[in-house]
Amino acid sequence: MERMDPIFARGFDVSPSKGDRRRFEIVQAAVRCIADDGLDGGILNRVAEKVGIQRSNVAYYFKTKEDLLEAAVRYAMLCGQALTQERIERARNARERVDAITDGAFDWRERYPDQLRLLLLFYFHCMRSAPLRKLHSQFRKAGWERVRLILRESSPASRALDSAAKAIQSEIMGILVELGSTQDERFDYRGCCLAACRELAAPFLRS
C-alpha cells in the first residue's frame, strides 16, 4: 500500500491510516483510469482492478462514479494549486507572482498530464451535472481570488481589476485546454501565456 500523499491528506482532511491510504490509492487509480478510458459504467471495476482490490472495496469509499470523478478532480486541482503555491512563495514581487500563476499551471500540465486529460473530461460532465458545476465554480472562484489578491497588492479594488483577474485565469485555462486537446506543438505556449497575462496585469502593477 502506498504512502499517503501530503497534498491528498491536507486537501481531504484525512490521516495516514490504512483506510485513508486505501482511499488515496483508489483516487490515484481513478485519475489514471478516467483520463485514459473515460467515465463509463465499468469505471469502478477498472479502478478496482488497477488497485488490486474488489469492486465492493471501491464502492465502500465512493458510492457512484460521479463521487469518484469528484474526488479525482479535487485531488488534481489540489496538485495544481500546490505547484502554483510553491512558485508564488519563491516570487519576490507582484509581477513575479503573476508569472508564478502561469508557470505553476504549466508545471502541473507537464508533471501530471493525466490530470489535465481528466480535467478536460470533467468539463464535459459539468455541462450535465449541477453538483459538478458547483464544484468547478468553487475551484474557479478560488483561482480568480488568488489572481485578484496579487493584483490588489499594487492597485485598489475595482471592477476593471476583477475583470483582469478573470481574464488572466481564463487565458491560462484556455491555453491548457488547447494543449490538452490538440497536437500542435509548434508554439511556445508557456511563453505566449506569460506574455498575455503580463499584458493583462500590467495596468494594475507598479512600474
Figure out the total of helices: 10
Q: Tell me, what is the CATH class of the largest domain?
A: Mainly Alpha
Structural class call reads mainly alpha
Topology pattern, helix = H, strand = E: HHHHHHHHHH
Number of domains: 2
Gyration radius, in Å: 18 Å
Strand content: under 5%
Low-confidence stretches: none
Task: Report the CATH topology name of the largest domain.
Answer: Tetracycline Repressor, domain 2
CATH architecture field of the largest domain: Orthogonal Bundle
Q: Fraction of residues in helices?
A: over 70%
- How would you name the CATH homologous superfamily of the largest domain? Tetracycline Repressor, domain 2
Kindly report the average pLDDT value.
Answer: 89
Report on this model:
This protein is mainly α. The protein folds into 2 domains: 6-65, Arc Repressor Mutant, subunit A, CATH 1.10.10; 72-204, Tetracycline Repressor, domain 2 (Orthogonal Bundle). It has 10 helices and no strands. It has helices at 6-12, 18-37, 43-51, 55-61, 65-90, 94-111, 113-126, 130-151, 159-181, 189-201.
